[in-house]
Amino acid sequence: GAATPGTTAPGTTPAGATAPSAAPAAPTTSGGLTLSTSNTMGSMGPDQASGGREPFFHWYKRKPLAWAGTGVAGVGLVMGIVGTAITTNASGNAEDIGNEIKAFVARNESTIPANRRAQPCGRREDPSGDLPGFENACGSLREELDSYDGALPWAITGWVLLGVGVVGTATYAMIDWYPSEQKTAAAGPRVTRIAPLVAPGQASLSVAGTF
Question: What is the model's pTM?
Fold first, then answer.
């Protein structure tokens, strides 16, 4: 039926009246104080992502100087192992031969001049000074001592090269690789903006910035 004067049909707005706007969303409060924060952490692009140190083996593959240091260490390791093995073997053999000579002298003291019992072998560079019957034993002793003396410098040089190679490569890595952490494209001071808002019956604090 017709609308009764002084009343308004449902869903209509009286003439000259303004339609009310949508009610604002009530802020979340805690004791009358609203705190909101925003940051750019979730929207950082690839060029802004935090960079890390380059993987060691990636760095190593493109550094010939590091290869050289490792090569020196490898050569030194081989020389040290081989040289040490030869000297150890020669030293053990020489000791065994010397003990056999001493035991033979002890068993045959009566046939050996008293002044030669402590040294039945002649000088190392003069085999003609060996006592009769000791030529073979003294000759074998000289060979072992020569092997020891010949391998000892190789062993020493090898271990020195190993140390130089390892220390040199490690030092180079500490200087060239370790400090080279990638920098972020967005590196800069952190900026934080704080804006208080006070209204009747409401107090809020807005915090925005880069974290």
Answer: 0.56
